Amino acid sequence: MRIPFTKRPPIIPLVRLEGLIAARRGGLFGGALNLASVNGPLERAFAMKRAPAVFLAINSPGGSPVQSSLVAGRIRQLAAQHDKRVVACVEDAAASGGYWIACAADEIIVDPASIVGSIGVISAGFGAQDAIARLGLERRMATAGSEKSFLDPFAPARAEDAARQRELLDALHEEFKAWVRGRRTLRAPEDQVFTGRFWTGRQGVGLGLADGLGDAHSEVRRRFGDDAKLAVIGARRRRFPFSLLGDAAAAVEERAAWARLGL
């Protein structure tokens, strides 16, 4: 007796790209999002031969511009190598570096309440010269190179340091803007979109920052049929030992990044 041929439902790989984007390694409270942590899952997802597309679930407040660029670039390399379409589905946020990565997709799908955008660059620090003076501490530092002690928090602010910092931030901002221009067709003036402001997902669709409303599960069913399945591909967890102190500091850093979005 011959068994009738039944077509297998498509299986769509979903790679989760979550958390603060930073070069550090992961730990007890969750890993950072960087090329080292996601390259393996991305390669496994794109290597699924029967998959007509790769989905990305993005949930990040941003972080390192270098790691954002590296992850986004790797996505485009793999998409070209395997000739697959990439769909990014934004959950809570794809802001700043998170949006940089989202732009590596061919389409960006958002929840109406997602946060998208924040196309800008930020640098923050502190000045403690008065505090150490009150404590009777003397700052001792030697350098070779007139600009080596850039933005020293234990010395008074210098106008030349502020000018150099502005130059660096503007240069990074131009890189970010050029990437978005090359990947998106915006429906609003650049002087509105490239200010560092962020919007809800619904507003983002109107501005051209995203293509539509939805989520990964509903998009997969809509595009590939009700029988289509998502295969979640994630990074392998690190085992012991781990650094509790480093993890706690990373958790505080990530909490501050989310707080800038009001989340």
Could you explain the architecture of this structure?
The protein has helices at 35-46, 65-82, 97-102, 129-134, 159-183, 190-193, 201-207, 216-224, 244-259; strands spanning 11-18, 53-60, 85-95, 107-110, 115-117, 198-200, 212-213, 229-233. It has a domain at 11-119 and 185-259: 2-enoyl-CoA Hydratase, Chain A, domain 1 (Alpha-Beta Complex), CATH 3.90.226.10. Helices cover 39% and strands 17% of the residues. Helix 2 (65-82) links the parallel strand 2 and strand 3 (85-95). Helix 1 packs parallel to helix 2. Strands 1, 2, 3, 4, 5, 6, 7 and 8 form an eight-stranded mixed β-sheet that branches. It is an alpha/beta fold and 263 residues long.
Summarize the structure.
The chain has 263 residues and is of the alpha/beta class. It contains 9 helices and 8 strands.
